[in-house]
Structures are given as structure tokens and as C-alpha cells.
């Protein structure tokens, strides 16, 4: 057998005919335009050119509501822990049975706490009672902010997106780095004297 006998015979006239050329190439081009119109980089084609719906994740609500309708939230930051109780009211805020302005003397801390209420438009509409212990002023402020945000979210779950966008529902996990042996602090060495 020669190599010519193994090759199947094709009708070159049929391939070169104008009817086959017209019918094959324009359909492919038109079809590819329709497919390409529904595609974006990194996405898949959707029937009818509609966009695929984004995945919806049900938010995890970490606050609680008791049988009296009071919302509770727990916040932590560094070594501070804050238990926050939110009820309907006139906007009174107490911290460890003291006035809000008296307990948090630093204006920056008071503004940070009030930003949570401003983001949810709850200023002057709720009474807040806070029990906070451990840590210092900065840690206690962060704990109170997270506790208030969680309690407000438990009271009204539709506030989740407003609180999440501002970052009030995110626990700040930064802690003090532990001291290492052979060092004065976590990374500070003892003073070195060459002579």
C-alpha cells in the first residue's frame, strides 16, 4: 500500500464552492458575537444576557435579645471586655454606673463611641448601659464600640450592612506581643556596651 491509497479522497470542488463558504463562516461569526456579548472577563455566559446574581450570605448576629426586649452585646478589645445593654429611651448613656462623659475623659474615645450611633441614626433614641472591665482607655473604648454595634444589630438586623461597612462589627484581634527571654521587652534588647 502506498501513502496515496491511505489518504481519503475529498471533493475539493465541494469545499471550494461559494455556497458552503457562505453557509459555514457567517453563522459562526454571528453566533460568536451573541456569545461574546454576554461574557465579561472572569464570568460565565448567562442566558438572555442577564448578570448572574451575587451570592447572598445570611449575616451572623452575635447580639442577643432577652424576654423583656432588651438587646445585649458583648465586645472585646485587647484585654477589655464590655457588656452592653440597649433599650428604647432618650439617649442616656451610663458606663459602670457613671456618666458617659465622666468615664471617657478623652474626646477621641467619646467620638468613636458616638460614631456607632450616628451610623445607625440611633442617637437620642436608645438608652445604653455599659459594664466594662480590664485594660485601659483605648481597649475599653474598642470593646464598647463592638458591644454597642452587636446590640444594635440584634435589635434591628437590617442595620447589619451599615455597621459592617463602617467596620464596627469587626473584632480587632491585635494583642500585646509576649516578652521573649534574653530581651527586655517583646523585641527590645538590653543596652549593649562595647567597652
Give a written overview of the molecule.
- This protein is of the alpha+beta class.
- The chain is built from 7 helices and 6 strands.
- It has helices at residues 3-6, 12-15, 18-37, 100-103, 107-119, 137-155, 160-166; strands at 64-65, 71-77, 80-88, 93-95, 98-99, 126-133.
- It has a 6-stranded mixed β-sheet with strand order 1-2-3-6-4-5.
- A hairpin with a 2-residue loop joins strand 4 and strand 5 (98-99).
- Helix 5 runs parallel beside helix 6.
- It is extended, with a radius of gyration of 33 Å.
- The termini are far apart.
- The mean pLDDT is 84.
Summarize the structure.
This protein is α+β, with helices and mostly antiparallel strands and 195 residues long. Helix content is 36%, strand content 16%. It has a six-stranded mixed sheet.
Blueprint of the fold:
Layout (H helix, E strand, L loop, with lengths): L2 H4 L5 H4 L2 H20 L26 E2 L5 E7 L2 E9 L4 E3 L2 E2 H4 L3 H13 L6 E8 L3 H19 L4 H7 L29
Parallel strand pairs: 4-6
Antiparallel strand pairs: 1-2, 2-3, 3-6, 4-5
Helix pairs in contact: 5-6
Amino acid at each position: 500500500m502506498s501513502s496515496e491509497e491511505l489518504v481519503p479522497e475529498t471533493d475539493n470542488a465541494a469545499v471550494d464552492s461559494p455556497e458552503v463558504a457562505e453557509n459555514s463562516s457567517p453563522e459562526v461569526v454571528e453566533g460568536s458575537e451573541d456569545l461574546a456579548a454576554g461574557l465579561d472577563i472572569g464570568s460565565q455566559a448567562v442566558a438572555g444576557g442577564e448578570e448572574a446574581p451575587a451570592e447572598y450570605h445570611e449575616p451572623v448576629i452575635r447580639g442577643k435579645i432577652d424576654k423583656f426586649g432588651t438587646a445585649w452585646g458583648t465586645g472585646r478589645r485587647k484585654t477589655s471586655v464590655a457588656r452592653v445593654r440597649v433599650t428604647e429611651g432618650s439617649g442616656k448613656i451610663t458606663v459602670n454606673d457613671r456618666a458617659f462623659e465622666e468615664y471617657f475623659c478623652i474626646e477621641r474615645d467619646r467620638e468613636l463611641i458616638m460614631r456607632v450611633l450616628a451610623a445607625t441614626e440611633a442617637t437620642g433614641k436608645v438608652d445604653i448601659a455599659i459594664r466594662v472591665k480590664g485594660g485601659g482607655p483605648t481597649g475599653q473604648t474598642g470593646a464598647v464600640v463592638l458591644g454597642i454595634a452587636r446590640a444594635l444589630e440584634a435589635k434591628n438586623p437590617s442595620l447589619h450592612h451599615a455597621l459592617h461597612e463602617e467596620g464596627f462589627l469587626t473584632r480587632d484581634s491585635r494583642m500585646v506581643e509576649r516578652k521573649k527571654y534574653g530581651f527586655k521587652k517583646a523585641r527590645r534588647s538590653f543596652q549593649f556596651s562595647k567597652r
